[in-house]
Amino acid sequence: MSRTPSRTAPRSDFVTGVALTCIVLASLSTVGSAVQCAILALWRQQGLWNTSFAELPAPMRFVLEHAGLLSGLAAVASIVALAAGIGLLRRQNWARCAVVALLGLGIAVSLAGALLPVFAPMPAIGAAGLPGAFDLIRGVMLAMGGVTALAISVLLGWLIARLLSPAVRHEFRAS
Predict the structure, then answer these.
(1) How far, in Å, CA of 139 to CA of 121, rounded?
(2) How many structural domains is the chain composed of?
């Protein structure tokens, strides 16, 4: 019997690790999003979410006023990430492209989250006696948030670069 050579490329530990990490985090996120949607629905049903957010800055007010929609979108994104993680584990090229897109979205969300407090600062609640200390604490928090967002963005960018590398692309073409 003649044996034909296999066309499958070796499976890298990198892709397997990214896929498993994606599956675990997306599973947790899916459960968390479902619980959040259920809690918001229960609060609305019982009239506990009838609070006015008029005193908050516009971006934060938008988030709170549309919490149900945003939680639903987070649940959908989590399910998409879970499917993409499973597809990535199976070396499906569409899943590699989806994971790259989700990582890019993660960069955008991370940077937007770091910039939100700069453009929509919270009112200085309870800081009347310590305005200088509040400003110092706020400055440190903004700096740490910016550094964290930058570190996350660099990590996600590195993952994107690796997933787009010729070696990884070859792994997906061969399967």
Answers:
(1) 11
(2) 1
